């Protein structure tokens, strides 16, 4: 905008007298040098201000958006993560936010700046000589019209591109996650073919969509070029008719050669804005997901867990638990056993409100857990699953996750109880050794011992042990019993195990089969009844 004004002032002062054969210019070159410097200074100050207000605020906003999305994810029920691909969620938080950030820091400010300067120039030119202004600017609404009319198609093709790109990411992610299985079962060629096909498809569709987009944007930009031709034609005709002077005609030609640049920017930026729709709708989808609500109440009526007529299905029509009722008492060990897929892990996860029940209710110390905030509820739980998740940190820090403010001595005590000493002492830096992503440098049994140490450190009143010792050999399982005994002392313990020797000391055993409780009682009672437990005992050659 300012350069155009400068050019106009200079031409009006220096060229008009020359062309009209009149007086000499009113201002000398030095005046225009000072004016140029002043204009440059104003442009610089405005630029800095614009950078600060636009970029800084956009990046701040972007950081907040990422934190809000991550915070939202944290509060979503686990069901959400079961249905979603994790790489997809990461892409939404990182890539989509980056796209939004880039568009709002670059395209949107440019779009508004260009629109404002074009409007001001157009108004100025209309006041100066409206017929030539019409000849110069008639192309703008036509070009914008073409682009706006094709927005629906652009949105559709952007969505297809986006989905195809996500599909490629998923195939790559799956390949990385399952590299061991792919190699073991000789699936390399099949996997590579699948990856090739999905990349090929993505490229083909994207090239076609880009071509369509290119034709539309270039078509609109080509229309713009007609503007200069109509200015030349109308200007020449008006000069011949004596209704416009040479200087005015020249001003329009000069402005005409400059003004279409910003208009092209507007067209490009408008096209870029259509890319955002699908990204914004994905973020909105995430933000609209219902979170698990509940009050931050402390449980003070003991820690008995009661299942009252609980039914649950992960997917509609596929019932996993059916009218299940039982009580796991504080100070007792309640064991859940039964055939694979019977619903044992599901029951344990429902008790910790990883999912919400479909009907019936679960109470902890008499409080309906669906009314308790999941984080507040989990403060009462120590959980040891078979699939242990470890962080890329030292052994010490991985155990300290159980209780962040634990001293080194407390961490070492529980580590010893969980029999971690034996393998940790062989690591190069002992408890300070960083164990790699998800503890990849450790064996299954070692990872499980760290997980038990974590639970010991947390010392919560309710303990869930889901196949907690399944990765340990009999010798280590026996060794670790001291730690487990300390972990479960005076607690409400729900233990899931396939080895009958692991549950032989339980106070109560529940057999979950087909989502229903088929047997319950003490180990002695169940053995005498000759049902599932007794059969398993004899199959595994163990004594209750
Ligand atoms: N996240 C999930 N989404 C959908 N279905 C699931 C999910 N987790 C488990 N299921 C299904 O629920 C049923 C019960 O699974 P669950 O893991 O509770 O059984 P389990 O008795 O613990 O089995 P196992 O002894 O083999 O660990 C199974 O049919 C399983 O396929």
Automatic annotation (TrEMBL):
PANTHER family per UniProt: ABC TRANSPORTER, ATP-BINDING TRANSMEMBRANE PROTEIN (PTHR24221:SF397), ATP-BINDING CASSETTE SUB-FAMILY B (PTHR24221)
Keyword annotations: ATP-binding, Cell membrane, Membrane, Nucleotide-binding, Transmembrane, Transmembrane helix, Transport
GO CC, one annotated term: plasma membrane
Membrane-spanning intervals of the chain: 27-49, 111-130, 136-154, 237-255
Compartments it resides in: Cell membrane
Superkingdom assignment: Bacteria
Gene3D superfamilies: ABC transporter type 1, transmembrane domain, P-loop containing nucleotide triphosphate hydrolases
Bilayer disposition of the protein: Multi-pass membrane protein
Major subcellular site: membrane
Record-linked Pfam families: ABC_membrane (PF00664), ABC_tran (PF00005)
Protein name (database record): ABC transporter ATP-binding protein
Residues annotated as domain ABC transporter: 305-539
All residue ranges annotated as the ABC transmembrane type-1 domain in the record: 1-274
Entry GO MF terms: ABC-type transporter activity; ATP binding; ATP hydrolysis activity; ATPase-coupled lipid transmembrane transporter activity
């Amino acid at each position: 905008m300012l350069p155009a004004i400068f050019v106009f002032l200079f031409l009006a002062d220096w060229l008009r007298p020359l062309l009209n054969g009149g007086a000499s210019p009113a201002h000398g070159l030095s005046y225009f040098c000072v004016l140029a410097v002043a204009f440059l200074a104003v442009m610089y100050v405005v630029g800095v201000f614009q950078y600060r207000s636009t970029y800084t605020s956009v990046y701040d906003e972007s950081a907040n958006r990422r934190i809000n999305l991550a915070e939202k994810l944290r509060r979503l029920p686990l069901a959400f993560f079961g249905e979603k691909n994790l790489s997809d969620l990461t892409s939404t938080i990182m890539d989509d936010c980056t796209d939004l950030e880039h568009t709002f820091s670059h395209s949107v400010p440019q779009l508004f700046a260009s629109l404002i300067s074009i409007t001001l120039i157009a108004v100025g030119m209309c006041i100066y000589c409206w017929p030539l202004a019409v000849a110069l600017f008639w192309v703008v609404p036509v070009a914008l019209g073409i682009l706006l009319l094709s927005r629906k198609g652009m949105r559709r093709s952007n969505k297809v591109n986006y989905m195809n790109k996500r599909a490629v990411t998923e195939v790559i992610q799956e390949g990385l996650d399952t590299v061991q299985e792919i190699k073991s079962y000789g699936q390399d060629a099949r996997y590579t073919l699948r990856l090739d096909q999905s990349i090929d498809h993505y490229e083909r569709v994207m090239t076609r969509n880009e071509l369509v987009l290119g034709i539309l944007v270039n078509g609109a930009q080509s229309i713009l070029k007609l503007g200069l031709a109509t200015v030349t034609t109308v200007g020449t005709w008006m000069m011949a008719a004596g209704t416009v002077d040479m200087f005015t005609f020249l001003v329009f030609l000069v402005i005409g050669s400059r003004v279409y640049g910003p208009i092209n920017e507007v067209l490009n930026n408008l096209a870029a804005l259509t890319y955002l729709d699908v990204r914004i709708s994905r973020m909105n989808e995430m933000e609209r997901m219902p979170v698990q609500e509940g009050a931050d109440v402390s449980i003070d009526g003991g820690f008995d867990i009661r299942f009252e007529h609980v039914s649950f299905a992960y997917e509609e029509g596929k019932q996993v638990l059916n009218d299940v009722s039982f009580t796991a008492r504080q100070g007792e060990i309640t064991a859940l056993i039964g055939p694979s897929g019977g619903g044992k892990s599901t029951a344990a996860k429902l008790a910790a409100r990883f999912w919400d029940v479909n009907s019936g209710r679960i109470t902890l110390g008499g409080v309906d857990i669906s009314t308790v905030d999941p984080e507040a509820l989990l403060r009462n739980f120590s959980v040891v699953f078979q699939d242990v998740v470890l962080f890329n940190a030292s052994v010490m820090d991985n155990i300290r996750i159980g209780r962040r403010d634990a001293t080194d001595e407390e961490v070492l005590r529980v580590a010893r109880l969980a029999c971690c000493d034996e393998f940790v002492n062989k690591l190069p830096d002992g408890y300070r050794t960083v164990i790699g992503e998800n503890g990849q440098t450790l064996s299954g049994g070692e990872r499980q011992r760290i997980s038990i140490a974590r639970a010991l450190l947390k010392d919560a009143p309710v303990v869930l042990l889901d196949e907690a010792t399944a990765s340990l050999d009999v010798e280590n399982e026996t060794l670790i019993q001291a730690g487990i005994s300390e972990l479960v002392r005076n607690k409400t313990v729900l233990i899931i195990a396939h080895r009958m020797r692991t549950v032989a000391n339980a106070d109560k055993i529940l057999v979950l089969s087909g989502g229903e409780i088929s047997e319950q009682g003490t180990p002695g009672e169940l053995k005498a009844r000759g049902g599932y437990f007794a059969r398993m005992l004899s199959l595994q050659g163990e004594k209750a």
